[in-house]
Amino acid sequence: MKTAGSAAMATLKPKAAIDPKEKLNKPAQVGDPF
Fold it and tell me: 6-25 pLDDT, tens per residue?
């Protein structure tokens, strides 16, 4: 976790944090640092 935003993402969406393709397949969420 590089930032608090990343930590929040891991807490709210652990699957997205584990699977990079999950991020690529979905549009940016509110508060998504990526």
Answer: 666 556 665 555 566 666 66
